[in-house]
Amino acid sequence: MELISHQANKNPITSAQLTPPSPSRYENQKRRDWNTFCQYLRNHRPPLSLPSCSGAHVLEFLRYLDQFGKTKVHHQNCAFFGLPNPPAPCPCPLRQAWGSLDALIGRLRAAYEENGGPPEANPFASRAVRLYLREVRDFQAKARGVSYEKKRKRVNRQRTQTLSQTQPPLPLQQQQPQQGQSVMANYSGAIV
């Protein structure tokens, strides 16, 4: 009698299939930021628990982080206030850049909810934090001579020229709304 092997045709499992995919840079940074904030709460005097944390504590944390900043923010009485590229060094402090703080708050806001915090009680989403970030942005824009205005999307000129060549012009009465009439009154398409 011939012995038949009953070994099933199974694909060998490689170690790459056993290990879950590594987290993205964003996920790693979010985890590090969350751990840093939790460490800050533990070291706070008196120590704070996450449920007792408020927007005021988040502001305290952001001010604490300023000491590790790398962005020169000139005082209003500094000779270089408002200059984007000062010609000489000055004693003005280094601070956290607004963009870094804004991104940090976004990551911590997400991490708070991922770690079981209720969205309606999220201290990172508080009005005080939003106002603080706006003040930091506006002051740093003035102090550094940098504009933080939202960039408008550029329209592809070639595409608009092509469209204008393929579509006939609208009659004059459809081009400009009459006084008191909205632009959308002439629109017959569905709003998506």
UniProtKB/TrEMBL annotation:
Pfam families: ALOG_dom. GO terms for molecular function: DNA binding. One of its GO terms (cellular component) is nucleus. Residues 1-19 have a biased composition (Polar residues). It is found in: Nucleus. Its main location: nucleus. Signal peptide: none annotated. Residues 1-28, 147-185 are annotated as: Disordered. Residues 158-181 have a biased composition (Low complexity). Keywords: Developmental protein, DNA-binding, Nucleus, Transcription, Transcription regulation. Transmembrane segments: none annotated. Residues 25-152 form the ALOG domain. Belongs to the plant homeotic and developmental regulators ALOG protein family. This is ALOG domain-containing protein. It comes from Brassica campestris.
